[in-house]
User: Which sequence fits this backbone?
């Protein structure tokens, strides 16, 4: 599965805003879960991943995190180190986190 975030411009109640979209895709089935947050700092990765796991009725053994620093303690690319609480949370849901792209 792959988790990604990106800003989306949209209109809400007649007002133009930029909201942060968080998405989780199951690669083989292309099943998708998305959730919008008012801004990136408001995005809570554990909240999102739990909602996504519940929607998907489970998880895959590996979750690729692309192009984000959400939940990282340090490092970059495949050598990134996830925050201990994020790694423990992922283990509790039955998957391992893996990061592919460094943020510049």
Assistant:
């Amino acid at each position: 599965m792959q988790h990604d975030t990106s800003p989306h411009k949209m209109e809400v109640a007649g007002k133009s805003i930029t909201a942060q979209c968080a998405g989780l895709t199951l690669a083989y089935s292309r099943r998708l879960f998305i959730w919008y947050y008012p801004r990136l700092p408001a995005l809570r990765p554990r909240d999102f991943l739990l909602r996504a796991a519940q929607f998907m009725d489970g998880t895959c053994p590996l979750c690729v995190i692309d192009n984000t620093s959400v939940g990282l303690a340090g490092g970059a690319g495949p050598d990134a180190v996830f925050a201990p609480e994020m790694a423990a949370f992922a283990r509790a849901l039955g998957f391992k986190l893996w990061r592919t792209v460094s943020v510049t």
Observations:
- Residues 45-56 form the longest helix (12 residues).
- The helical segments are 45-56, 84-93.
- The two ends are 24 Å apart (CA to CA).
- DSSP finds two helices and seven strands in the chain.
